[in-house]
Design a protein that fits this description.
Length: 526
Amino acid sequence: DDDIFSSAFCENSEKLINVHLFALAAKYYSLSNLGVCTPLEDVLEALKGDSEGATGIKPDEFMNNKKSHEVQVMSELVNSIANYCGIKQVIDIGSGKGYLSSFLSMQYNLKVYGIDSSSSNTNGAHERNKKLKKHWRAYQSRGRENLKSQSLEKTNDRPVDSEINWKTINEELLNNASNLQNQDQVIIQDVVHSCGSTEMATPETNTETEADLVTGTQSQETKLSEEVLAVLSVLPADAVEDFSSSHCNCRELCEEEKTQRKMTSLKTKARKSSESSLYFPLTSCITAETELNDIITDLEDCMLVGLHTCGDLAANTLRIFTAKPEIKAVCSVGCCYHLLSEQFENQEECQDQVWGFPMCQYLKDKGWCCGRNARMSACLALERVAVGQMLPTESLFYRAVLQVIIEEIYGVTKSDRHVGKTFSKSSSFIDYVRRSLKKLELDDSKLPDNCIMDYYEKYKHRMNELEAFNMLKVVLAPCIEVLILLDRLCYLKEQENIAWSGLVKLFDPVKSPRCYAVIALKNQSC
């Protein structure tokens, strides 16, 4: 109740007088309590998504736990949406080093364009993609060893009958093709090697059996080629290694050459068919006015995704989605709320500028403004603090005292320069101040060490106050995040071409504090 919560503050002074009521109000207005989110399980069920997903690649071998968790969960949802909409092209906005893009491409055979404004990120994405492909080949090698051992076991355990062996090979091939997304990958050499092992196991004295085997080989040739192509067609580009004659133990040279030519032809066709599952890192700055056709020449029906798109980029992703008919769906997880541009933050309003907040007409009509301090608070992680991952009080204290120093000694109240992560590199408060002053391009020679320590001692007893103040900001953080996310959702609700839109909690907030995705699907006719 608003009346009850308002009593947390003094009516006259507007100071906080009841911390307990303040915390209850913050919890009441948090996204988890408002009941506006759609459970991820319900979304996957509605999309008829397979919650098991594919298990060919383990991203935690190339990513930290946080990124691995995000990529696995989000990629499953993106794949389900793509299948539901009948699309194979995905555009990853703000793709960074391509973690999500590579995984979507290799794991789900989607054609992914990763767009990032940083060329260094794009280059990093290329390198990351190479590592993932190498990892993919490791699974193929394991599958190769498994097939070899199975072939040896069959050879030792029972006499070879050509008809039975060909049936076994075909059954294994079909099973591997159908389970390719959930099993270790199959290399075409292994199939040929199995053929060779079968033939070599035929007793030389049994000419009738040998003749039967050759006849069976020829009769099954067409069917085998089709099945091999089915396997190859689902592999991503460069997943198939070059065929080597050492893998084939065929008795006659002409048969070996024949098989090689056939495999080369099949691989060529497979590479062409697998072009739809490539990942393309691109460098470009994305704005609300960006024409994707200028960046992607073969743009087709697709969906937009963004994993922790920074500041205004999250808002612009939604604007591009609503404006472009080719884009059938969007799944966007934003971050860095402090970098959002606000229409009503400054009195100087630019009519032509596209703002990050507010997006919906409802808040625009009210002239709503958060302010930088509130947006900074929205970036804090309540769930992490709740499990004991406390705020970095000492570094916050250092930064607060530094602010006093540069205002009182240098008369600076605003600067375009940033201190950054100076605290982690500093050995003491004096070292921190001097490093920071150099970054801010201020002359530190006018400030002796004893003067720096005087400031430290003057405010040291107020460190507990600072910690309490920041804890209140943490408690309030979810409420401010709600405002930003609901603004984006309301913007989508205002559009006529949207069939469904919602907020979905994707990630564990302890692992990934910015855990909510804005998702929307267009009407089928759009």
